[in-house]
Specification:
The structure holds 2 protein chains of 2 kinds. The longest helix of chain A is centred in the last third of the chain and has 18 residues. Helices cover 33% and strands 25% of the residues of chain A. Chain A is α/β, with parallel strands linked by helices. In chain A, 40% of the residues are buried. In chain A, helix 3 runs parallel beside helix 5 and helix 4 crosses helix 5. Chain A is built from 8 helices and 10 strands. In chain A, the strands form 2 sheets. In chain A, strands 6-7-8-3-9-10 form a 6-stranded mixed β-sheet, sandwiched between helices. The radius of gyration of chain A is 19 Å and the shape is globular. Chain B has a single domain, classed as MetI-like fold. In chain B, helix 7 runs antiparallel to helix 9 and helix 9 packs antiparallel against helix 11. The longest helix of chain B has 37 residues. Chain B is globular, with a radius of gyration of 22 Å. The relative contact order of chain B is 0.15. Classes of the chains: A alpha/beta, B mainly alpha. The structure holds adenosine-5'-diphosphate (ADP) and magnesium ion (MG). The site of magnesium ion has 3 residues of chain A, from helix 1. Magnesium ion binds next to helix 1 of chain A.
Chain lengths: 266, 280
């Protein structure tokens, strides 16, 4: 077991007015438990606003959970501080939906890619260049991008840069939060295939988040169906024999175009 | 600038012809102030009552004032004080405001709340009143006016910079930098500051005009620069008594202030246009 999440909750207070009484609690994540095995791809699917991003952001400490525990290799990450927290986040990276705004517009791609390496390792200039060049090749980008600013690249190229930045830290777990959702349909497949290849090559675990059941089905070993901050169903995707029970999941699967009539959901 | 090379920035800026003209005017005035000792034809403070209120020409290109002092020389030397003090107020208040604004936005929580309420209270008074109160406490004089203006001005920048930083802090690249292991300090200096800098440049250019106007205003009211030191606002005040017989005594410094204020505004507007273009 690489990661284990237990009864994770995140509440947001939305101040509707200046009066304290009128603060409403949004239960963005409402008691989520699941685990991620080594080398496993866990897909999380659910409609927009169901709490997928909030869940993902908690896993890398961009948000502090309201309640619940996250264990990484058996260690409770809420107890981590300083260097050990930094090391944890190094091995648990995330890529976001908006590929352009994930990159600082005032920095060149080359400087953006150096940053994680400089933050974590003491490397010579040549070694930094070597690692960046190596990883650029893995995400199928030319070295020409290094001298360019983010806004001059296409959406697909930008997301490859984001993938490259995350992989430079050789994470054990990579969280992909809707990473293909804002891309052109023609590019979506290539990024999805790239992720599949990279996963195999680097032997890491993935949490692949999408609102699109097709996407999640394509890449995942196991699928978690999320609704209103909860996981309502867990599906084994390995042999593609679905036994879904929850009505929401049935609805999700029924909206699929049926390519294999024999695998149709009952 | 935000992912905009300097040459590209320049080529867009020169399309704003009026602003380019204004920029040259401002630079010329600044140069006039810097090189005043070499450019001024006469000693700006030399009183020669025999030569008072002379018309332009000869030894005095713009004529003389009621004490027989060279108007052009006084304007040139006055530039040092009028523009210099405005730059001084700007750089101090902007630096303090930026530091506190970034801190407040980045920290959030109770300190942030407290600071903002403090700003609200002070900014609910017109800045003129606040500066006058400070001068009332410290006493009048150029240095005290500058201190008073800095003390009031930085509050504005705290507010503006805080809101700019808050909007940038929410951008995904800040989250991405955190996940990449970047320290808070480095996030501020590498990711947040460069992205608020363009707006700060526009803001400070637009505000410079009004600072010049205000500073001259305090001198005109008799709080700032004291005679015989040459300064534009003080010159207007001195010329006020001769508005009928010698209106040019007010006209020259008044015109200079007007043109400088308009120039800074036009340059600021052009800068904003150029930067807005680069965003879209
Ligand atoms: N910072 C926040 N403050 C208040 N509410 C939030 C915040 N972030 C997310 N939410 C709310 O939490 C819910 C889940 O959001 P999110 O995790 O982004 O969903 P998803 O990624 O599945 O679309 C939404 O209702 C959203 O409005
Ligand atoms: Mg989301």
């Amino acid at each position: 077991m690489l990661m284990e999440v237990v009864e994770l909750k995140k509440n947001y207070l939305s101040n509707l007015s200046l009066m304290r009484k009128n603060t409403a609690v949004v239960k963005a994540v409402d008691g989520v438990s699941f685990s991620v095995g080594r080398d496993e791809v866990v897909g999380i699917v659910g409609e927009s606003g169901c709490g997928k991003s909030t869940l993902a952001r908690q896993l890398v400490r961009l948000e502090v959970p309201t309640a619940g525990k996250i264990y990484f290799e058996g260690e409770d990450i809420s107890l981590l501080k300083g260097t050990s927290l930094k090391n944890y986040i190094r091995s648990c990276q995330i890529i976001f939906q908006d590929s352009l705004s994930s990159l600082n517009p005032s920095l060149k791609i080359g400087d953006i890619l150096k940053e994680p390496l400089v933050n974590h390792f003491k490397l010579s200039k040549q070694e930094i260049h070597r690692r960046i060049a190596y990883m650029l090749e893995k995400v199928k980008l030319g070295a020409g991008v290094l001298e360019r600013f983010p806004q001059t690249l296409s959406g697909g190229e930008l997301q490859r840069v984001n993938i490259c930045r995350a992989l430079l830290l050789t994470p054990r777990l990579l969280i992909c939060d809707e990473i293909i959702s804002s891309l052109d349909v023609s590019i979506q497949a290539s990024i999805l295939n790239l992720m599949k290849e990279l996963k195999k090559e680097f032997g890491m675990s993935l949490i692949f988040i999408s609102h699109d059941i097709n996407v999640v089905r394509f890449i995942s070993d196991r699928i978690l169906v999320m609704k209103r901050g909860r996981i309502v169903e867990e599906i084994d995707n390995k042999n593609r024999e679905y036994q879904v029970r929850h009505p929401y999941t049935k609805k999700l699967f029924q909206s699929l175009p049926v390519s294999h009539p024999d695998k149709r959901v009952v | 600038m935000i992912g905009l090379g300097f040459d590209k920035f320049l080529s867009r800026f020169v399309k704003h012809k009026a602003a380019v003209l204004c920029l040259f005017f401002v630079l010329a005035v600044i140069a006039g102030g810097i090189f005043a000792p070499w450019l001024a034809p006469n000693d700006p403070n030399k009183i020669e009552l025999k030569l008072k209120l002379l018309g332009p020409g000869g030894q005095f290109p713009l004529g003389t004032d009621h004490l027989g002092r060279c108007i052009l020389s006084r304007l040139l030397y006055g530039t040092r004080i009028s523009l210099g003090s405005a730059f001084l107020v700007m750089s101090f208040s902007l630096t303090i405001g930026t530091a506190v604004g970034i801190f407040s936005a980045y920290r959030g929580g109770r300190i942030d709340n407290l600071l903002m309420r403090l700003c609200d209270i002070f900014l609910s008074f017109p800045s003129l009143v606040l500066v006058l109160v400070i001068i009332g406490v410290l006493g009048s004089g150029m240095v005290n006016v500058i201190i008073g203006m800095i003390l009031v001005q930085w509050l504005w920048y705290v507010r503006i910079i805080r809101s700019l930083v808050l909007s940038i802090k929410e951008r995904t690249f800040v989250s991405a930098a955190k996940v990449a292991g970047t320290s808070d300090m480095k996030i501020i200096f590498r990711h947040i500051l460069p992205n608020v800098l363009p707006q700060l440049i526009v803001l400070s250019t637009l505000d410079l005009g009004s600072l010049i106007l205000h500073f001259s205003g305090y001198s005109f009211l008799g709080f700032g620069v004291q005679p015989p030191t040459p300064e534009w606002g003080a010159m207007i005040e001195e010329g006020r008594r001769f508005i009928r017989s010698a209106p040019e005594l007010m006209f020259y410094p008044g015109m200079l202030i007007t043109l400088i204020v308009i120039s800074f505004n036009l340059i600021g507007d052009a800068l904003r246009d150029v930067l807005d273009e680069s965003v879209t």
